[in-house]
Design brief:
Layout lengths: L6 E4 L3 H12 L7 E4 L11 E3 L9 E4 L6 H4 L10 E4 L6 H7 L5 E6 L9 E6 L5 H11 L3 E5 L6 H9 L1 H18 L4 H21 L4 H8 L5 H11 L2 H25 L2
Parallel strand pairs: 1-2, 1-4, 2-3, 4-5, 5-6, 7-8
Antiparallel strand pairs: 6-7
Helix pairs in contact: 5-10, 6-7
């Protein structure tokens, strides 16, 4: 980041903590960040931690609490006309943010994911009314986290949540299953884990490095009547696509439910 605005990180759970580590790793000054979280522990050196808001309104207010907590927490937060509100709350729309936290400079939604902690995240960004300076400021916040793309329609956040927001959990489950399958075939647990991790990571990097479609890359690994062919035959006969589609659909639907709950919360 080119400037050192004051940042309040309200809620420092898994995702908020991942973003915090990404910022610090890319040179954001620890003393510019105030964490507001009554239960957080072991925060990085130089970052202040308080249980409740204190002091003047920040330049940037990052919401990392549970979506269901917004109605309760919002009245305790200081907002000024210079404050940019950036929310990572699943399902909570910018219109609801403006209603709960009136008077801010702008309202921005970001859907990051856990690999942001090492600068390998995938984030979507949306803001209905943001000037060029504000957009630059947001870009500086999300750039250290990895890949980020601006989207024109807020409704896509439900699908984004299903694919990238929650997606790491689904990938981790696949890695776990792949390693367990290796153990079942006689590998040690550590060797199976390392091979599964490296295979998934390397395959993702290869797919990013080429314009070849993933389906074509899969076919490039397969040789007629070979080992990969035997495995893909089993996989293709299963309901893998249906399972993944149902998984993402369930995640997106829960995001819609959270959106409705946020609109109607007292």
């Amino acid at each position: 980041m080119t400037a050192t605005p004051s940042i309040w990180l309200v809620g420092c759970g898994n995702m908020g903590g991942a973003m915090l580590r990404g910022w610090l790793a890319h040179g954001v000054r620890p003393d510019s960040i105030l964490i507001i979280d009554p239960v957080a522990k072991n925060v990085p050196d130089g970052v202040r931690l308080v249980a409740a808001p204190e002091g003047a309104a920040p330049d940037i207010l990052v919401l990392g609490i549970k979506p269901q907590s917004l109605a309760q927490v919002a009245p305790t937060l200081a907002i000024g006309p210079h404050t940019l509100v950036l929310s990572i709350l699943a399902g909570v729309e910018t219109a609801v943010l403006a209603q709960r936290l009136p008077g801010a400079r702008a309202y921005v939604r970001v859907m990051p994911n856990m690999p942001a902690a090492i600068g390998e995240g995938a984030s979507a960004v949306f803001a209905p009314d943001l000037d060029a300076a504000g957009r630059t400021q947001v870009d500086q916040l999300v750039a250290p986290l990895g890949f980020a793309t601006w989207v024109a329609e807020e409704d896509v956040f439900h699908a984004v949540t299903g694919i990238s927001g929650s997606g790491p959990a689904f990938v981790f489950r696949f890695i776990e299953a792949l390693a367990a399958a290796g153990e079942a075939e006689g590998l040690s647990s550590e060797l199976a884990r390392q091979l599964a991790l490296r295979t998934v990571a390397g395959s993702a990097r290869l797919s990013l490095a080429t314009e070849t479609a993933p389906a074509d890359l899969a076919e490039a690994v397969r040789s007629p009547n070979g080992t990969t062919h035997a495995g893909l035959t089993v996989m293709d006969a299963s309901d893998l696509r249906d399972l993944v589609r149902a998984t993402v659909k369930a995640t997106a639907q829960r995001s819609r439910e959270l959106a409705e709950a946020a609109r109607t919360a007292d």
